[in-house]
Amino acid sequence: MNAEEILDEITKNILNVPQNTGYAETIRNQSKAVQNSQEIIKKELAKIYDKGFKEGVQF
User: Fold this and answer.
1) Cβ partners under 8 Å of residue 6, min gap 6
2) Superkingdom of the source (predicted)?
3) Mind giving me the DSSP string for 3-52?
4) CA nearest neighbour of 40 among 28, 52, 51, 48
5) How many domains does the chain have?
6) Which domain holds residue 35?
7) For 32-56, how does the pLDDT look when each residue is reduced to its tens digit (9 = 90+)?
């Protein structure tokens, strides 16, 4: 994934949180979306840095 694809995936995660639920459920879903987004970032950074530092910093 490139940076644009990562941002698109994160945006999709956040925007797909249902807003027609109660406050607590919405917050819980938003928290899950943020956690999923963090996992995507961690996974992609791990892939990039696994290739070496020079390639990783070009991300």
Assistant:
1) 40, 41, 44
2) Bacteria
3) HHHHHHHHHHHHHTS-SSS-HHHHHHHHHHHHHHHHHHHHHHHHHHHHT-
4) 48
5) 1
6) 3-57
7) 999 999 999 888 888 877 766 666 5
